[in-house]
């Protein structure tokens, strides 16, 4: 069974290249089974078997007995020619890899031609796992980087500010030929029209400073802004931040959130303008018992955020009091329950707000503020919480069943408390 590795720095496009191969029509036709597993830094055999089984079957795999797991894996793969992608492998343990490879090589007729494709940042694991020479991705040239950047940063058909062009070329040089950084910064700067906004990115030296930061053990508040590194600096999470109470991440280029849920004293978290973050998932929590004292959470201007998962079976964000969601246009669903939220602030997504309210996601909140929400229509009885006060910037129409507990609700505008412009009670 051949093992092929794609090696390169973070952000060069290893995963993108692997995805192109995985989805190629010729590849689809050449393998009976295809599986994609995101490995990251947790190379645990049971976990990987679960992920492989869920990928190949398309359904949840709940088996926990190792012997039965191996039997199930063998049944799925025997006499099948398969392609298995291990994306973002960090493990450097030869023993663990040999054990997994043994499980995959279960034998059987018709297995010849199966392949494993691995993406990895360093060559050591590629040499450890690979049976053929790895494919090493190179950095883009400065000219190619500029072409990518200008397509993102400058709108088509709009006359360019020559000063911004000059600043942009300096910013591109800082990206070190990494296309992910170039695309992310170009996308971010597309909405910044002033030279000062561009200069703030150009003059940032956090790329060099942040990974070597030494924090005081009593640090209470930390703000990381305009960090252009391709991955969140692991050294930050390894610092003694046991007393950190307030954290802000703004205009940063990392593609995955670290395990912030394991900061034991974190009470306030602000995530703003993180253009590469697509998911708030398990890595964000670190374990089911996470964010035990978090009181305020803000997700702001998260243009690519598509999915927000809860932490598991344990109580979700048990102490969260105030939740702010602004300008997350691709986020269509919230986690199932926010047991302690009493203040809700939302900007601009009628459907997300309505779905959350109707599904009982917020059962205890008393105050809410809307901006750029045009209308809300409630069609089910008994699911709308009893709101004591609502502040609206543009809510013009409220439609509800007669039994919805809205009768005593006042909606606050810029001065004083006023009733809704239009309230339609459907009997």
Q: What amount of the residues lies in strands?
A: 15-25%
User: Radius of gyration, rounded?
Assistant: 25 Å
List low-pLDDT spans: 206-213, 378-382, 399-427
The chain-level mean pLDDT equals 75
Total helix count?
Answer: 14
Structural class label:
alpha/beta
Question: What characterizes the major β-sheet?
Answer: 10 strands, mixed
Number of strands: 20
The CATH topology of one domain: Rossmann fold
The name of the CATH architecture of one domain is: 3-Layer(aba) Sandwich
At the fourth CATH level, what is the homologous superfamily of one domain? P-loop containing nucleotide triphosphate hydrolases
State the oligomer: single chain
CATH class of one domain: Alpha Beta
- Across the major sheet, the strand order is 6-7-8-10-12-13-14-16-18-19
Approximately how much helix is present in the residues?
A: 25-40%
User: What is the straight-line distance between the termini?
Assistant: 67 Å
Morphology: globular
How do the helices and strands line up, and which of them pair or pack?
Blueprint: E1 2-7, H1 14-23, H2 25-30, E2 33-40, H3 45-57, H4 66-77, E3 82-89, H5 94-104, E4 115-120, H6 123-129, E5 135-136, H7 142-153, H8 162-174, H9 179-189, H10 195-202, H11 206-209, E6 221-225, H12 234-238, E7 246-250, E8 268-272, E9 279-280, H13 282-285, E10 296-300, E11 307-308, E12 322-326, E13 343-347, H14 350-358, E14 367-371, E15 375-377, E16 389-392, E17 397-401, E18 410-412, E19 417-418, E20 422-426
Helix pairs in contact: 3-4, 7-8, 7-9, 8-10
């Amino acid at each position: 069974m051949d093992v092929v590795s794609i090696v390169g720095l973070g952000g060069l496009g290893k995963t993108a290249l692997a995805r192109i191969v995985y989805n190629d029509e010729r590849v689809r036709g050449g393998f009976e089974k295809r599986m994609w597993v995101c490995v990251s830094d947790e190379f645990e055999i049971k976990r990987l078997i679960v992920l492989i089984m869920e990928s190949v079957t398309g359904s949840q795999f709940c088996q926990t007995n190792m012997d039965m797991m191996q039997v199930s894996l063998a049944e799925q793969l025997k006499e099948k020619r398969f392609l298995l992608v291990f994306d973002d492998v960090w493990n450097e343990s030869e023993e663990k890899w040999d054990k997994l490879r043994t499980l995959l090589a279960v034998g059987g007729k018709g297995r010849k031609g199966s392949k494993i494709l691995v993406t990895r940042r360093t060559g050591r694991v590629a040499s450890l796992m690979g049976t053929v020479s790895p494919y090493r991705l190179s950095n883009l040239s400065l000219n190619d980087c500029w072409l990518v950047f200008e397509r993102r940063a400058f709108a088509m058909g709009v006359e360019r500010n020559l000063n911004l062009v000059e600043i942009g070329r300096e910013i591109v040089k800082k990206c070190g030929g990494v296309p992910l950084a170039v695309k992310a910064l170009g996308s971010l700067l597309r909405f910044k029209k002033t030279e000062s906004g561009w200069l703030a990115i150009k003059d940032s030296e956090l790329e060099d400073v942040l990974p070597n930061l030494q924090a005081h053990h009593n640090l209470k508040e930390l703000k990381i802004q305009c960090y252009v590194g391709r991955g969140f600096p692991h050294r930050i999470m390894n610092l003694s931040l046991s007393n950190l109470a307030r954290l802000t991440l703004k205009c940063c280029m990392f593609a995955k959130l670290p395990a912030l849920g394991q900061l034991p004293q974190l009470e306030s978290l602000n995530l703003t303008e993180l253009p590469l973050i697509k998911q708030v998932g398990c890595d964000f929590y670190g374990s089911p018992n996470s964010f035990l004292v978090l009181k305020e959470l803000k997700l702001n201007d998260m243009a690519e955020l598509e999915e927000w998962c809860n932490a598991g079976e344990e109580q979700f964000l048990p102490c969260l009091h105030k939740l702010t969601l602004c300008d997350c246009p691709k986020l269509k669903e919230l986690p199932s329950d926010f047991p302690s939220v009493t203040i809700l602030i939302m900007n601009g997504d009628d459907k997300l707000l309505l779905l959350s309210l109707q599904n009982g996601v917020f059962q205890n909140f008393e105050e809410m503020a809307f901006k750029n929400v045009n209308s809300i229509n409630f069609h089910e009885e008994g699911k709308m919480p009893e709101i004591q006060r609502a502040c609206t910037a543009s809510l013009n129409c409220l439609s509800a069943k007669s039994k919805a507990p809205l009768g005593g609700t006042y909606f606050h505008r810029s001065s004083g408390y006023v009733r809704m412009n239009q309230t339609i009670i459907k009997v």
